[in-house]
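Sequence and fold:
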Amino acid sequence: MCRRLYICFTLLLFFFSIAFGDTTSNIVISGEGYYGKVINNITDLVSLETKNISIAELNFSKQTQGRAYWHQYYFYPKVGVSCLAGYLQQNALGNVYSIFPTFSLQNHQKRPWQFYIKGGLGLAYFSNFYHRTSNNENLFIGSSITAHANLKLGISKQVSSKVKINAFGSALHFSNGHVQVPNYGINVVSAGIGLEYSFAPYKKQSFTIEDTVSNIESKWLKNARLAIGIHELAGTHTAIGGTKYPIYAGSFYLSKQYRPVSIFHVGMHYNYYVSYYDFIIHGEILDDKPVLNASNVILFAGQEYLFGKFSFVLQGGINVFSPFNTKLRKLGNSPGNIKKFLGYAISNKLGIQYYLKPPDKSTKNNLFMGMYIKANFGQADFIEYGLGYVF
């Protein structure tokens, strides 16, 4: 089941990159090398000594020219795909390889140095992941396949009509979304340099934005979504090798588009954890009303950024009903631990959605599908896939 979920994730990201690249734009190739430090985020255990990491990245992208409306509203970004290889300089961690779509915002003003920000979200493969006998030191990564997030902030200088040099700082994150523990994840901070070649001469972009505000649906719209997720019932490292359980989820929320590329959300998530139910009926805790006590209700607000038929979703909320986790916190005897309290109280979700019809042209009566990572105050809880409707 996990492999099928990851295959769907890969396909979704592939089509996401294809949608970004739907343009007659100029092709740009860049190569980058960066060097950084793996941050040891295992504070409650004696862990292996973390080392530095050396990374090489090759990127293929297109400079948008304004063919789609969102090109203009994001100031003509570069969109493409990157391939990354990293050497973690630690036998327990091995090497990492990744492929991910990228999105780069840049300053097009003609200055000697130009600022840019570049992000990507994709999949990574680890050569050495946790194994209880052959590699039990690696508590960071419990599976060969993980999600990978990549963020860069840098400056670039054009040295010829087709060549630029780049310097940047970056942050990288690797995690399997709690599908398989241990899953502390790997966080990296680094700095690097790169060289970029454009097949056509660089030119200054025009920032003329068409008046599409009149096409925005000013009313609040209703949204409903059903989803299924998967995770292991455990902490980030305990109960290794446990059963993988489904989570059944539903959401109802209101949305309002206030810019051609921006939609605001406010609403409620409901999650039913089969793992909690199984734990309860075996008489461990909360032995009455197992269905109710295995439920979770979250009130949330969020933001959606549109890219044609695709969108990127960010949501944050508060757990207003979570009896299972409330009981666990009390049994853990940690009422004064602010970090653990926030982990039980705060919920985050980010994801990618695909609409049947472009939301900027057909805001109502629209079907969408999506992939999301749900977290508790930044700690991954589960990966989910959903189908929804705007009415």
